[in-house]
Structures are given as structure tokens and as C-alpha cells.
Write a structure and sequence with these properties.
Elements lengths: L1 E6 L7 E2 L3 E3 L2 E3 L7 H9 L4 E6 L4 E3 H12 L4 E3 L6 E6 L3 E5 L1 H8 L5 E5 L5 E2 L4 E7 L3 E3 H12 L5 E5 L4 E8 L5 H17 L3 E9 L2 H8 L2 H4 L3 E5 L10 H8 L3 E5 L10 E5 L2 E6 L10 H10 L6 H5 L26 E7 L15 E2 L2 E2 H10 L6 E5 L3 H8 L5 E4 L7 H10 L7 E6 L7 H10 L8 E6 L2 E9 L3 H4 L9 H6 L4 E5 L11 H6 L11
Parallel strand pairs: 15-16, 15-17, 17-20, 21-24, 21-26, 24-25, 27-29
Antiparallel strand pairs: 1-5, 2-5, 3-4, 6-13, 7-8, 8-12, 9-11, 9-14, 10-12, 18-19, 19-20, 22-23, 26-28, 27-28
Helix pairs in contact: 2-4, 6-8
């Protein structure tokens, strides 16, 4: 491959190295220049460009990425169409992600231009979640490099796959002390039930017994427990030794203790055993919380039908410090839907800088700002409008009556914008292809500008994040393809999706809509300058 400056008169067929925008002409990085492109660039006064030309034996980045993706893909994985040298792999089913770490490392060492990134081994994934990506760094790879990679892989099982969750039956046994509160046991059951639901598993029964060896041993022998695939024991006090009450009761019931303790925090005090050929998990106290902990590492593997050995648990230490990691809920959804683009209007904020009134109820030409924004969005061509309310919910919803928008309330709106974003995303239909995220306090938005953003949205062409700009500076709204919803659900505070945008610069397409992209009304002065009028009778 030859890379460098090329005279524009010789550029037909070359691959553009950098985005070009001249007047109303815009060409993306990676575009292969046609004769028409060259003519238009010449007419615009461009004399030379930085581009790449492929040599004989070079394989275009998209073809190379797809070849590698197919070679590493095993069971229950779907390969997305390649774009800009990237080919993503998604889980077809919910389950546990399996990675041949040594093989992926060997693959990444073949050539700097060939890269494969994956989720962590044995991470629980929902159907539709992206689990790996192949990215070709240059615009092409040589056939020799690809052949080397394929020879490495052909003598092994594909290194990536998903072990599907099975419809397991789980028996819960909880021990009680005189001080044990029923509401704590009820919460424990609900938290475990939520974990099982994500995997398509269910309870066979729940038994509550005294925190004593004999009573627990009898409960473990019960016929209902015998009908279970997995037995989970929650003790009224933590297991502190292999001869404590829970391991002793397991042995008395005829079972075996296979391992106690794990190098995962939280989750250290986990016990793994076996009774009648079924796994028994003595749960650590942290498993009463929905946050991710060592219990999830072991439970998920059993729910996917995978064997868990003592050496597996002892190998969980690297990556096992989870104290600062929040749980990561993932929506059950495909990476791309077949429906239209829905809009989420964020209208939950407290208008703190307004000094009292709610800016969303201020009137522009006699119309409350929140309704004005919603009507503009609805007229742009979106499939539906969801409005997330919070502060002054009743007044905001009253202003929206008859607009056709669907309000959803965020009781945690004080936590910041991200909490409202999560509520909005979870309210969308399962088949939407994308979400247009709109701040409710943007009076300059027009249906034409939003229509331009919708027209630019083409995920299969690499335009899967569409950003509004004002004189080249990024602003709002932002249109997201469904493939990013999982990551957006993990953001926190008031940053929105800014961090996610930074992860995917090649997926971003900017649409210039003028000053409206950066015009909001956070203060009384800004609201008045934009033409708004406070309505004291309505709190805004």
C-alpha cells in the first residue's frame, strides 16, 4: 500500500486518508474517490490530497476485518457487516462469553495493523450485546498477514463463543437467627430472582430454616431441592471456615465441599460444593445486593452449563477487585432494530440556575417551552416522542396534554441527566433503530434541522452517531444507533453520552444546524434574550 500526498488529477480510485469539507462538498475518511469526486474537488480548488493506494495483494480493510471476524467466531455469535475497517461481533443469545485468551493474544501479535478487542472472559452478556470487535488499523492488510492469521486459527476451535443460559431450576435455602428480619430475607429472594430472570432461570422453592447444622442438612435433603439444578444457600451469618455451619450441613446431607474462598472482592466468603450431582453455592453476604460481586462470576457459569473447578475460582483474582464497579444492566435487545427512530426529550431538570421558576414552563409565543420543543421534534419525522419528566412533573405533563408525546417519570431525576437518559432508553420499543436525544430547553430547534439529522442517519454506512453542530462546534441533539444503548445505560451524572462519543470517532457524522445546536436557556437572562417569558402563575 502506498500512502501520502497525491495530486488531485491522479486521485481517482485512491482512498481518502482524512475527511474533506469544502463548501457544500463533504467526503469522509476512507472514501474511495470516484471520477465525479475528483472533478468536484478540482472545481472546489483542491490541488492535492493525502490518500492511500492499494497494491496487488493488498486486501481492503473491510474485507480483511470480515475475514478475521469469521475465523474467530464460534457458537451463538452474529457478525455485523464491516465498515471503516471494523467488524463487530454480537451475542445471538443471552449467556456467558467465552474467550480463548492465548489465541487472541497470539493473533494481536501477528501485525500491528490487525487488532481484536473483546469483553472479559466469562462475562455475562445479553442477546444483541457487542462482545468483540476486529479493527484493521491501515486501509488494507497484505494477503500474507491475513493468511498467517488464518493458519494460526485453523488448527484450533474458534476462540470466541457464547455459552447460552439454560432454563435452570434453582432452590433457595436461607438460614435464620432470632434477629433475622423477614424483610431482609424477602429482599434476598427478590435480588436472586432478578439475577435468575436475566438468565431465563427460575425458582423451584424457597426454604427458611434455623441457622443450625442439623436443620440445614435436613432442608438440603428435601424433595423440592432434589428437583433443582442448582442449590443456593444464604446463611444468616457469613461462612468463616470450612467447618462452619453451612459446609458442615452440606457434608451431613451427603454432599461435598469443593472449595471455600475466592480472590474476588466483594465475594471472598463464597463456598462451592456438590450434592447429588448438583452444584451448591454458599453465597457470600454481598450477594444480597444487586451489585456485581464474586457470586455472579460463579452463578452465571453454572446457569450456562459450564463446569467450575476450584482452580477456576482461584484464577479470578486478576480483575476481581469489584468494590468500585456498579452493576451493569444490559437491555435485552438486538444491536439494531428494524423500526424507526424514536425521540427522547429530557425534561426532568430542576432549573437551578433560574432562581426558582421552571424554564420549561416559560412561554415562547404563548406556548410552554417544553411543548414547543416536543411539537418541533414530533414534526421532524421521528416514530414517536418519549418525554422524561422529573421536577414539577404534574405541571410539565399538563403542558404536554394533547401533544401526542408519551411522558415517563424519572423519580431519581436529582441524580443528574444520565438517570433520565436511562429511563428514556428503557421506555423505547424494542424494535427502534435509534434514539434522538433532545434537551427540552432548546428553543432554536426547527423541524428542518432535525429532519437533516434523521436523513443523515445511516448506521450501515458508518453514520451511526449523528451530532448537531454550530459553526463546527458540537452541541445537541445527538442521534444514536441502537447498538450504543447498552453503553449509554452505564453513564452517570450530567455528562450524558460524551464519553461514549469519544470511544467511536469513526462512527460520528456531524450535521451543521447553526446556533440552535448550542442555544439553551439556563438563566433568566438567556431565556429573555431567546424570546421567552416567565409565567409566574404556572411556576415558569
Amino acid at each position: 500500500m502506498k500512502f501520502g500526498s497525491i495530486a488531485i488529477v491522479e486521485a481517482e480510485g485512491a482512498i481518502l486518508a482524512h475527511k474533506i469539507r469544502v463548501g457544500d462538498l463533504s467526503l469522509k475518511k476512507g472514501a474511495r474517490l470516484s471520477a465525479e469526486d475528483v472533478a468536484r474537488l478540482e472545481a472546489a480548488g483542491v490541488s492535492d490530497i493525502v490518500a492511500a493506494r492499494l497494491d496487488a495483494g493488498d486486501i481492503h480493510e473491510d474485507q480483511a476485518a470480515e475475514r478475521i471476524a469469521r475465523a474467530i467466531s464460534g457458537g451463538h455469535l452474529r457478525i455485523e457487516a464491516p465498515f471503516t475497517g471494523r467488524c463487530n461481533l454480537h451475542a445471538e443469545v443471552s449467556g456467558v462469553f467465552r474467550v480463548g485468551k492465548d489465541l487472541i493474544n497470539a493473533l494481536n501479535r501477528i501485525d500491528p495493523g490487525l487488532t481484536v478487542a473483546t469483553l472479559a472472559p466469562f462475562e455475562a452478556v445479553e442477546a444483541g450485546r457487542m462482545v468483540a470487535t476486529v479493527k484493521i488499523i491501515p486501509f488494507a492488510l497484505s494477503e500474507e498477514v491475513l493468511a498467517t492469521a488464518e493458519r494460526l486459527l485453523e488448527s484450533h476451535e474458534p476462540p470466541l463463543s457464547v455459552a447460552a443460559f439454560r432454563p435452570c431450576r434453582v432452590s433457595l435455602v436461607a438460614t435464620c437467627l432470632p434477629s433475622t428480619q423477614a424483610k431482609m430475607l424477602d429482599k434476598t429472594r427478590r435480588v436472586l430472582e432478578a439475577r435468575l430472570e436475566k438468565a431465563g432461570a427460575s425458582f423451584t422453592d424457597e426454604t427458611r430454616v434455623a441457622h443450625a447444622t442439623q436443620a440445614l442438612a435436613e432442608a438440603l435433603r428435601e424433595p423440592a431441592s432434589e428437583g433443582a439444578d442448582i442449590i443456593v444457600v444464604f446463611g444468616a451469618s457469613a461462612i468463616t471456615d470450612q467447618n462452619d455451619i453451612i459446609p458442615a450441613a452440606l457434608r451431613m446431607a451427603g454432599g461435598r465441599v469443593l472449595h471455600f474462598g475466592m480472590p474476588v472482592d466483594p465475594g471472598n466468603l463464597l463456598l462451592m460444593g456438590e450434592l447429588g450431582g448438583r452444584p451448591v453455592i454458599g453465597a457470600p453476604g454481598c450477594a444480597r445486593s444487586p451489585k456485581e460481586n464474586g457470586f455472579d462470576f460463579v452463578l452465571n457459569r453454572f446457569l450456562a452449563g459450564l463446569e467450575v473447578k476450584p482452580e477456576d475460582i482461584m484464577g479470578m483474582g486478576v480483575g476481581g477487585l469489584l468494590s468500585e464497579i456498579v452493576s451493569r444492566p444490559q437491555p435485552r435487545q438486538p444491536s439494531e432494530g428494524q423500526g424507526g427512530v424514536a425521540a427522547i426529550v429530557l425534561a426532568a431538570g430542576r432549573s437551578r440556575r433560574m432562581g426558582g421558576p421552571n424554564k420549561l414552563l416559560a412561554r415562547f409565543d404563548g406556548v410552554p417551552l417544553v411543548r414547543r420543543t416536543v411539537e418541533t421534534v414530533a414534526a421532524s419525522g421521528v416514530s414517536e416522542v418519549v418525554v422524561v419528566t422529573g421536577h414539577m412533573r404534574e405541571a410539565v405533563e399538563e403542558a404536554l396534554q394533547g401533544s401526542g408525546a408519551r411522558p415517563v417519570h424519572n423519580p431519581d431525576f436529582a441524580e443528574g441527566l444520565a438517570s433520565s437518559l436511562r429511563v428514556g432508553l428503557r421506555a423505547l420499543p424494542e424494535d427502534v433503530s435509534g434514539a434522538l436525544i433532545v434537551l427540552a430547553d432548546m428553543p432554536g430547534l426547527t423541524r428542518e434541522a432535525l429532519g437533516q439529522m434523521l436523513a443523515a442517519f445511516e448506521p450501515e454506512a458508518g453514520r451511526s452517531i449523528v451530532l448537531a453542530t454550530a459553526s463546527g462546534k458540537r452541541g445537541n441533539p445527538v442521534l444514536w444507533a441502537r447498538r450504543y444503548f447498552g453503553e449509554l445505560l452505564q453513564v452517570s451524572g450530567d455528562t450524558g453520552g460524551r464519553h461514549v462519543i469519544g470511544l467511536y470517532p469513526d462512527d460520528v457524522f456531524e450535521v451543521e444546524i447553526g446556533a440552535a445546536a448550542r442555544l439553551d436557556v439556563d438563566t433568566p437572562e438567556a431565556l429573555q434574550a431567546a424570546g421567552g417569558v416567565i409565567d409566574p402563575a404556572r411556576g415558569g
